[in-house]
Design brief:
about 375 residues; alpha/beta; Rossmann fold; about 45% helix; about 15% strand; globular; binds magnesium ion
Length: about 375
């Protein structure tokens, strides 16, 4: 197997893990393109190490005057249009999409139209525009491989099993660092506390989303689109050890679970090598040493995002896009010390009280909902400052 791959979000947490897998399997991959939002210096390092001929930068200003950091003859793709062009590069067979938020939406659509196998890590894209992304993937006969650990687990559980036989998808959640906090204690959670995740090592936004469990709410929507399962057939269970990454319950009562250590290189390697598997032996679970695995029901009063998303999924609109956008604004306010931890979910709920999103008619309607939701959420956040 040999794959020519482009990595969007190459400088972030998922991009770094993707490059770690590729580094130890050089004879299977050629990195033909990399892209990032602003971190030109790190892109230049990666370009040198992996001899990458094509480089994309989303932020034009961050790139100004820095082309000398790269080898002569490097092709540059700047701005959103540039990234879309990069995603369709004829020498690439696969595109890994791991840009933060929905910044990667247009390049993702371009990659699908360019018939590239898509390794999708940016869950916000599916949450906001899943209907249209999946429609386009079907029309263009493009396979989407889920990088998110829970969805990659479900993807593996479903191999050899038809969708017709699914009864329920069971998403596991670590429960984050505040699983055992009282409501009172949650009021005073600092940014530093929220950024310390007990199990997973990830980027800032997703670490806060794990602490509020907004991440799991987003993952319900992500699973609905990826696997075409109605959201009332998708459950969440707390599993603090993060060994079982998710499960599928079939119509005959059998449940299949996927397990591995909590490290993103496992699901990433699964996608990079699919339908084959990485042959390098990696450490795995020793059950005798592990002893026990625990499972609990989530507390939706302490983690309101989980209840709010159910309301969005019932709405006949882009409410999930509104949820996602309002949450992004609220997390940013929290990271900048302008609001309390518990106000993150309050901002999301209040935004949805005011605005449930446009009817889900087109990709354009999703983008409009995101823009309106962001400004509504910003207005609400100001009242909390
Ligand atoms: Mg996940």
């Amino acid at each position: 197997m040999f794959r020519h791959i482009i990595i969007f979000g190459a400088t972030g947490s998922i991009g770094t893990s993707t490059l770690n897998v590729i580094r130890r399997n050089r004879h299977h991959f050629s990195v033909v393109g990399i892209a990032a939002n602003t971190n030109v210096e790190k892109l230049a390092q990666i370009a040198h190490e992996f001899s990458v001929p094509n480089v994309g930068i989303f932020d034009k200003h961050a790139f100004t005057g820095k082309d000398s950091l790269f080898k002569r003859g490097t092709h540059f793709f700047v701005g959103e249009d540039g990234l879309c062009e990069l995603a369709q590069l004829s020498e690439a067979t696969a595109v890994s999409m791991a840009m933060a938020g929905i910044a990667g939406l247009k390049p993702t659509m371009a990659a699908i139209e360019g018939k590239k196998t898509l390794l999708l890590a940016s869950k916000e894209i599916l949450v906001a525009t899943g209907k249209f992304v999946m429609e386009s993937a079907r029309t263009n006969d493009v396979q989407i491989l889920p990088v998110d650990s829970e969805h990659n687990a479900i993807f593996q559980c479903l191999l050899g099993n038809g969708n017709d036989f699914i009864d329920r998808l069971i998403l596991t959640a670590s429960g984050g660092p505040f699983r055992n906090f009282s409501r009172q204690e949650m009021e005073n959670i600092s940014v530093e506390q929220a950024l310390r995740h007990p199990v997973w090592n990830m980027g800032k936004k997703i670490t806060v989303d794990s602490a509020t469990m907004a991440n799991k709410a987003l993952e319900i929507v992500e699973a609905k689109w990826l696997f075409d399962v109605p959201s009332d057939h998708i459950d969440v269970v707390i599993h603090p050890e993060s060994i079982v990454h998710s499960m599928v319950k079939f119509c005959d009562g059998s449940i299949i679970a996927q397990m591995c250590p909590p490290n993103m290189e496992y699901p990433i390697a699964n996608c990079l090598f699919f339908p084959e598997r990485e042959r390098l032996a990696k450490p795995s679970i020793n059950f005798a040493e592990q002893g026990r695995l625990n499972f609990f029901a989530p507390d939706t009063t302490k983690f309101p995002h989980l209840a709010i998303i159910r309301r969005c999924l019932e709405a006949d609109s882009n409410a999930c896009a509104v949820f996602q956008a309002a949450n992004e604004v609220a997390v940013d306010e929290f990271l900048n010390h302008r609001i309390k931890f518990t106000q993150i979910s309050e901002i999301v709920a209040k935004t949805l009280d005011i605005y449930l999103g446009e009817p889900m008619t087109s990709l354009k309607s999703c983008e409009e909902s995101v823009i309106k939701a962001r400004s509504t959420a910003k207005g609400i956040a100001k009242e909390f400052n």
